[in-house]
Design a protein that fits this description.
Elements: H1 3-19, H2 25-38, E1 80-81, H3 82-99, H4 106-124, E2 130-135, H5 138-142, E3 157-161, H6 167-184, H7 189-208, H8 213-217, H9 232-246, H10 249-258, H11 277-280, H12 291-302, E4 312-313, E5 319-320, H13 327-346, E6 351-353, E7 356-358, H14 360-375, H15 399-402, H16 419-423, H17 453-456, H18 460-474
Antiparallel strand pairs: 1-2, 2-3, 4-5, 6-7
Helix pairs in contact: 2-4, 2-18, 3-4, 3-6, 3-18, 4-6, 6-7, 6-9, 7-9, 9-10, 13-14, 13-18
Bound molecules: 2-acetamido-2-deoxy-beta-D-glucopyranose (2 copies).
One 2-acetamido-2-deoxy-beta-D-glucopyranose (NAG) is lined by residues 19, 380-381.
């Protein structure tokens, strides 16, 4: 890219930002948490606020005598994939630990969102030696366009075990339970202790019986939430959260001994449900090295002006990485930038990316630019959060949102009966308020098409880091 092109890219991004008035981060925050109520599986409480959703999957696990009712649907389908679900809970918990003070009245709802997940994770790990990695036959489900309330596809439970291990899914559950135990410690000591005890147990299982659920579950895991990056990162990540929750030397030694095993070639800009590398270096209560060096490298791989940047930016200024559901990267990496800006500010430290200096204020500015883009400061002037702003996605790839509600249409709509609602050009009848979709492409365009799931599907792990970001920007 020539200097002129670079300048014009920056100019356009600045213009896009200047054109739209500042955002109501508080409103967006409330909505980003509300979204989780729309993803709930199981028996809904009387306090349910997204009321077009009703009870669903009330017999999950019963065919094998285990109660697996509850938890979250990961995205626009009706499968409960524990691996990304646990990651979403870890990040929601991290959001609360880091920015809880700014949550205000949204704190209660955030705690509910976390507990809806941890209650399920306790069920998924209630039998020693087994971890339920998902519920629902993903092929049956994906071939159907059905409301969760109508589901008649096989709700097969899939478990990993000592013989058929799944270290990534198990260690991610350990991370989620450990992080959540810290959230609940000042509020409900008993529950917090239960979460922590289970976290230690599940971590031990993950570490002792090593292997990828890729191999153990085969086609039931891949290509849906295939573990590309291996399970070493989840083992270190799980141990790092247990270290933060317990301060136990065992976990400190574990992290230090095993961080060396992490794939060095993998990009420092990786952080998501599959890859934990960049996040590991930012969890507090670790010794400084090698974490600070790695965290600095992370910053230099993300900032647009850095000579070692490894992500792309659209002309409108959106962070882009290859693959679907791009906004997961924009929210997760921005979250890490914001988290890391805090110790940097405290120590008045500036990061050197070659001859480019990165101040803590610059990290916050980049994070804010991504949040603002998502909320409408972009070339299309559109918000990518459903129900926020004047213009937002109307045809999201989401079964419940796109089919008429049970109240509007009490009769059963079967597997193929939903096709009409999938193919229609009409907007979805039910607003999944707060859902953030996969987002625009590298040219800042967005088709708003249900069939284009890589761009139009919301997921629990796009929103989780956004909760922390919005809490911070609401009060800064
Ligand atoms: C999981 O499967 C994918 C696709 O087959 C493969 O690329 C990846 O390396 C596997 N991961 C592990 C940890 O075996
Ligand atoms: C976005 O808003 C600005 C200012 O109101 C306007 O000039 C521009 O044409 C809009 N772009 C689109 C694609 O609507």
């Amino acid at each position: 890219m020539s200097l002129i092109q670079r300048l014009s890219v920056l100019g356009m991004a600045a213009m896009a930002m200047g054109l739209v008035a500042s955002h109501d981060y508080g409103e967006a925050l409330t909505k980003s948490i509300l979204f989780y109520e729309g993803q709930r599986s199981g028996k809904l409480p009387p306090t349910q606020r997204i009321t077009w959703r009703k009870d669903s999957a009330l017999r999950d696990g019963f065919e094998i005598g285990v109660d697996l009712v509850g938890g979250y649907y990961d995205a626009g389908d009706n499968v409960k994939f524990t691996f990304p679900m646990a990651f979403s809970i870890t990040i929601l918990a991290w959001s609360v630990l880091e920015f809880g003070q700014s949550l205000g009245t949204d704190l209660q709802h955030s705690l509910k969102a976390i507990q809806w997940g941890t209650d399920y994770l306790l069920k998924a790990t209630s039998i020693p030696g087994f971890v339920f990695a998902q519920v629902g036959d993903p092929y049956g489900d994906h071939n159907c366009w059905e409301r969760p309330e109508d589901m008649d596809t096989p709700r097969t439970p899939y478990a990993v075990s000592k013989e058929f291990p799944g270290s990534e899914v198990s260690a991610e559950i350990a991370a989620a339970l450990a992080a959540s135990s810290m959230v609940f410690r000042p509020i409900n000591r008993g529950y917090s202790a239960r979460l922590l005890k289970r976290a230690r147990m599940v971590f031990e299982f993950a570490d002792k019986y090593r292997g990828s659920y890729n191999d153990s579950l085969g086609p039931w895991a891949c290509p849906f939430y295939c573990d590309y990056s291996g399970y070493q990162d989840e083992l270190v990540w799980g141990a790092a959260w247990l270290l933060r929750a317990t301060k136990a030397p065992y976990y400190r030694n574990y992290v230090l001994a095993n961080i060396q095993n992490l794939d060095k070639s993998s990009s420092f800009a990786e952080f998501g449900w599959d890859t934990k590398h960049a996040g590991i270096n930012l969890i507090k209560s670790q010794t400084p090295e090698p974490f600070i060096t790695n965290a600095d490298k992370f910053v230099c791989s993300v900032l647009p002006e850095s000579p070692t940047v490894s992500v792309s930016y659209s002309p409108g200024g959106l962070l882009i990485k290859p693959g679907g559901s791009n906004l997961q990267h924009a929210t997760a990496l921005s979250f890490l930038l914001l988290v890391y800006s805090r110790p940097l500010s405290k120590d008045s430290r500036v990061i050197h990316c070659g001859n480019v200096f990165a101040t803590p204020a610059r990290l916050i500015q980049v994070a804010r630019s991504q949040v603002d883009y998502i909320l409408g400061s972009n070339p299309l002037n559109m918000s990518y959060m459903v129900g926020y702003g004047k213009k937002f996605p109307e045809r999201i790839h989401h079964r419940g949102s796109s089919l008429p509600s049970i109240t509007q249409h009490p009769q059963h709509i079967d597997c193929t009966g939903g096709a009409t609602y999938f193919y229609t050009n009409n907007p979805n009848p039910n607003l999944l308020t707060g859902a953030v979709v996969g987002g625009p492409d590298i040219k800042d365009s967005y088709a708003d098409s249900r069939a284009d799931f890589a761009h139009s599907e919301p997921t629990t792990y796009i929103n989780a880091p956004l909760v922390g970001l919005l809490a911070y920007f609401k009060s800064h």
